[in-house]
Each structure stands twice: as C-alpha cells, then as structure tokens.
Design brief:
The protein has helices spanning about 15-40, 50-55, 60-90, 105-110, 125-145, 160-180; strands spanning about 5, 10-15, 115-120. By secondary structure, it is mostly helical. The radius of gyration is 18 Å and the shape is globular. This is DUF2017 domain-containing protein.
Amino acid sequence: MLFTRDPAGTVSASFEAVELGLLRLAASQLIELLLAAESHALGTGADPALKRLLPDAYPGDAEASAEFRRFTSGDLLERKLDNARVLLATLGEEPLDEIADEPVGPLVDDLFEVPATPIALDAPAVQSWLRTLTDLRLTLAERLEISPDGEQHLDADEAPLLSSIYEWLGMVQESLVYAVDR
C-alpha cells in the first residue's frame, strides 16, 4: 500500500484483502467505542481511550472541563463518527462475502488470491481518513499504555499484535500525508 496523488488531486492506493479487513474492523470498533460514549457522561468512569480521544480542555479544573465538554462533546463525537463512517464507506464492500461459508483452509487460500483493491479519495475523504487514522492510533496507544515519552508499557499476550497494528496504521497515515503534501 502506497498512496499517490494524481494531477486532479485524487489520492489513491491499493489495499490487500487483509489490510481492508483490518481497516474495516478497526474503524467499526472505533465507531462502537464512540457510540458507547454518547450513552454516558464522559469523564466519569469512561473508557481511558475515550479520555485520550476527548481530553479535558482544562486538566487542572474539573468544573471548567465539564462545562466545556457539555457544549462541545456532542459535536466532536459526531464528527469523529462521520469521519470513521467515511473511511468505512470508501473501503467498499467486503471482498470475501462469497466465500465466507467455506472452511477456514480454503478461506485463507482465497484471501491471498484476491487482487488488491484500489481506493480513491477526494479531498474531504482524505481529511476523514487522516482524522480517523489519528483516532485509531490514539486508541491503540491507550490500549498499549504508551506513555508521553513513547514507551510502551503493556506487557500482555496481545501487545505484539496491537503494536504491529499501531505501527502499520502509522505507515498508512504517513503514506497518506506524503501523498497529500506532494
């Protein structure tokens, strides 16, 4: 996957089926997290990832932060949801729907035979992708317990997988930024 930009300004890349599946899963989980945030008051027992996505405006002043959040969190959540939905929409339909009922062995074999899927993004979609990739990386950074100094503190069985996904999303984001800047 490498994003390129054509003279008309369209940014495009080709994604393997595994990459598309990973992006779909991650964006869907982000949407679920954000929808859950709408159902309870933020800042009180909320998922730490939500606190990373929607940080306090006034860290030293809980009352001012709550007041600020009261006026801004709804719109911010809605924009984050819209951006994630744009990313999902640009990925197209699941390419493996027709083989989903097959046993795992043939499914894995077919997965690697599916040709790469081209994705084309106009300027608004690029912005949605950049924002959603940032949100996905912030969420994973919280799950990996990455501190401000960049050190990962999660030492669980899932840490290597989450770390690999975090790094891959960073490469996708970097490629997209470079394509836009050219």
